Amino acid sequence: MEIVNDRKAAIKKLRHLTYNSKIPVEKFREKMDQEFKTVFLPNNVERTEHQYGNVICDVLSPEIYSSNRIMLYIHGGCFTGGSRESHRAFCSSLATKCYCRVVLPEYRLAPAYPYPAAIENIQSVFKSLFTEEQVANSLNVDRNGKAAIPEIIIAADGAGASIACAFIFNLRDRYRSCISHVILFSPWLNVSQNSKIITTRRAGDEIITGDVLRKSSSDYTYATNTSSPFVSPVFAEDEQLENFPPVFIQMGGKEILLEDARLFQTKLLERGNKCVLDVWPGMMFMFQMADEYLHESHLALDKVGKVVTGDTAGSDELHIENKPKLEFGIHGEA
Asked: CA 114 to CA 217: how far, in whole Å?
């Protein structure tokens, strides 16, 4: 069905992604889940539950996917909200566009579980996922008899990008080498007390304001921690950026977060890493999650899919699974 762009409706929906000093955290979580949840997943994506590192996760499998490619998605929600329910539909669309399974963890949220609880959860999920994929791919050999190397994509949006970068900074090279892409949507890269967004009076765009970053970061950690690269990735040291996986940042041209993204891109490029900043003119924070109102949302995810799948042209073999309808769940559930 053809989409008739409705910018006003898109902005109204996307504002449910933001938490500020005027709303209790429980109400914020409830409203966010209600606005973005879906009864039926798009494109016949199948959902199962699985525990990775004692963290409950959705595993979203599209009808066609590469057997050695999997995405770990760290949802946004201002450090205090967001869930599998709020991001399930969006991640299902990503799974279809990228021809891969998507693992969506239910990590611990602030303020009940402040920094670094979320990072610890994601580290645990990643290491468990890495081990499982390594075992699975040891049985999958190419024409030369070599075991396929698991291709893990790390993706995140908003405050989830801070968590994603923090856990990558902590990874050893043997883990980093299996990360083919880091995809960041409208990333929060600087929530420090010196951030121009926080310190400038009335700084804001159609979705994000200084109060959103201020309140979210204060619930996440102490003010003294906000200049740590594990909270604000723009302050990463050279050694933390050494051999950082290729990064693709996608965001709207009207976002006040854009300057921080450009700074982070510059730091990555100066260290010899790859980083592409994909800016969509006139678009707002997380416009990709308003796909019923914005045609650009679909085009943007098409581009992400091409970024993820485009590097396979030079590989020896691309393993595609045509997943049948299952009478039993992937992990044995009836």
From this structure: 10
Q: Which two structure tokens, joined as six digits, stand for 240? A: 């933390």
Max CA pair span of the chain: 62
Residue in the block written with tokens 């989830």? 160
Cβ pair 83, 75 in contact under 8 A? yes
Reported residue count of the chain is 334
For 44, residues 6+ apart whose C-beta sits below 8 A from its C-beta are: 62, 63
Q: Scan for tokens 């979580």, then name that residue.
A: 29
Distance, CA of 236 to CA of 230 (rounded, Å): 8
Strands 46-52 and 55-61: antiparallel
Rounded-to-integer distance, Cα 78 and Cα 69, Å: 28
Q: Estimate the crossing angle of helix 84-98 against helix 25-36, to 10 degrees.
A: 40
Task: Please tell me the distance from the alpha carbon of residue 172 to that of residue 181, in angstroms, as a whole number.
Answer: 16
- Write out the chain's pLDDT in tens, 334 residues: 556 689 999 999 999 999 999 999 999 999 999 999 999 999 999 999 999 999 999 999 999 999 889 999 999 999 999 999 999 999 999 999 999 999 999 999 999 999 999 999 999 999 999 999 988 887 766 666 676 678 999 999 999 999 999 999 999 988 999 999 999 999 999 999 999 999 988 888 999 999 999 999 999 999 999 999 999 999 999 999 999 999 999 999 999 999 999 999 999 999 999 999 999 999 999 999 999 999 999 999 999 999 999 854 333 333 444 443 333 333 333 3
Burial class (CB in 10 A: 0-12, 13-18, 19+), 262: middle
